[in-house]
Amino acid sequence: MNNTAEVLVVGGGVMGCAAAYHLAKLGTAVTLIEQFRIGHTMGSSHGPTRIIRLAYDGLDYVHLARESFHQWSDLQLESGTQLILKTGGLDLGSREAMYMDGILRTFDAAHVPYEILNQSEIAHRYPQFRLPEDVVGIYQADWSMLSADQCVATLASQAVVHGAKIIENEPVVKLHTSSTGVEVITRSNKYSAKKVVMAAGSWSAGILAQIGIELPLTVLKEQVSFFEARDPAQFQPVTLPLVIHHFPGTTSVGSVFPIHNHTGVKLMLDRVTPGVDPNNEDRTIDQARVDQLRNYAAKLLPGLTGRIIESVSCRYAMTPDEDFIIDAAGENGNVVVASPCSSHGFKFGVVIGAILAELVTNGATRYPIQRFRLDRPGLKGGTWQNKGAIPVFI
User: What is the pTM of this model?
Assistant: First the structure.
């Protein structure tokens, strides 16, 4: 086997597979190395669904989200595989909830159409919800669901179609860089290239520390549950929107997904756990958190039975400022760092892959990534901390 390439990609989640896909489309000889198998459940990219939306408090994020919509649609057309489903969506919260005002300001600046709905208007349009009187909703019609597992599989398979090599079940143990290239050593092989894209999510910090690149990451063990509905017809994408529920005084949120690629309604309360060792393989479900989520679900969506069909664990790799890291480092910029996702990166995966391909081949990118630099102030002075606790009631 030829273990030499122009570019190596470490990590086969959404970012790594997207980088390999775009590099291969450019005609670059690229090899992707994944420690498990493509589509594994140990990281951040697995599951039936993810949200893609324009609701951000920064114009750069809106620009990247718009481009992501286009590129996921292009990949869907190229592959002939259904990847994206439009549903519409709601940001819910009181006026004091974090990010609500920022979303409105950005929507206005970016000329994104939206509606503001009060509690009674939400109840009339979506009687599935039971909400306090002070809750308002920002409705935006472009919200969609990505079929996450299928997105990763399609990026990987199309990367291979365009000439990429994918190596599975080879954990990386060493990374060496020099002025002439990079060397990646796994448990069973040695690979060399001119450049490497590090897209290993929560494992990135440990690998990059070997070459003096310190990432202030906090890895969270998150979990999501799928709830049985009394009347599943009321919880389909045509009748129930996607929801992000913002709480006052905290960056933690609740989320609701209509039934899609599963038999249950997906709910989550995220960023409520302490950090874990990224090498900890424990993916057992915390029953206390399940009970907390069940209580939240019962109050928010009384049409659920309370029976949980399935609970699944995943990992979040959080930066202190909750923004991504996308930058070139190493000798002569031969190490390009991609991710962590900080709990909101999947939707951008396809365009971040394009950004990484441009950084590798051109040393620059046309996309706005200044926010994501390694030397930004937001990465200095500590690690991620939740800014508050989720309220007992919604």
Answer: 0.96
